[in-house]
Amino acid sequence: MTATDENGVVPGGTGVPDGTPKQRTRLISGPGMLLLWLYGVMVVGAVSRSAVQISTEFDKAPLAYSLSAVAGVVYGFITYSLVRGGETARRAALVCCAAELAGVLIVGTWTLVEPSAFPDATVWSDYGMGYLFIPVLLPLSAMYWLRKARTTARPA
Amino acid sequence: MLDALTVATAVAALALAAWCGWAAYRDQPTKDWHFIGMAVVSLLALVQLVIGIVQLARGEKPEQGTTIFVAYLLGAFACIPAAGFMSLAERTRWGSVTVAAGGVVLAVLEVRLYDIWGG
To answer: In chain B, N or C: fewer CB atoms in 10 Å?
Structure first.
């Protein structure tokens, strides 16, 4: 049981992986585990939400529900990459996090500027306010974590 | 009945979150006592799941739809055990943070459940 010598408790903030390098870089040690949990929650939230809404009331707000589904797929891919680990997965996850952040910012702004395009909310509406702003905070902390994982994990 | 249980589960989830947050603050992994706490909260969520289904079987209708209600009940039940297993895999303070986050997520789910049922 190795303890990190950090004193911050900010999620995804100051943790240093004390990991034992295996063949693949572990991306879910330390703060990565918290990220994995939050991404898992967002996957379940976004996918089940869009599944229900698309199957029952798609005509009401097709754009909003499709965006929720896309968000769910992106979250799912990032979650898978975190579990899988390794350099390729790390890069792919980084790209997806950037896409996710762009999505949150664009859709968030869009919902504020033109609410009429969105009769119903998406996970990314108002920068994810309905989800405690997790959708906008998550990619930032994840990108920070994934960048850090590169600098600390040396190839074996 | 269901509303009281929803409130109780939400409060217990927040207490668990605070407890595990405290462990994380003290740089400790989750210990046996934490897992007992998680078991208690999970049990509350399980009872809630059963009672919710019984209410549905009796013909009562949730305000915002049966599908969403059942989905949230299942999510609320799975929430803490999932976080607990992840804290078993991560024996550092970050495992504790994960369970604390799980408690907060469950509390949010309970608030939504309250709305969905039509409290």
So the answer is: N
CB contact under 8 A, B27 and A3: yes
Exposed / middle / buried, residue A47 (Cβ in 10 Å: 0-12, 13-18, 19+): middle
Domains of chain B: 2-117 (1.20.120)
Give the helix ranges, DSSP H, for B26-65.
Answer: 32-57
CB contact A130 to B (< 8 Å): no
Average pLDDT over residues A122-148: 88
Angle at A80 between CA A77 and CA A85, to 5 degrees: 125
Q: What is the pLDDT of residue A118?
A: 85
- Minimal Cα–Cα distance from A37 to chain B, Å? 7
Candidate from B75, B102, B108 with C-beta closest to A37:
B102
Average pLDDT over every residue of A82-90: 91
Kindly report, residue by residue over A67-80, the tens digit of the pLDDT: 889 999 999 999 99
Residue contact B93–A4, C-beta within 8 A: yes
Is residue B55 pLDDT above 90, yes or no? yes
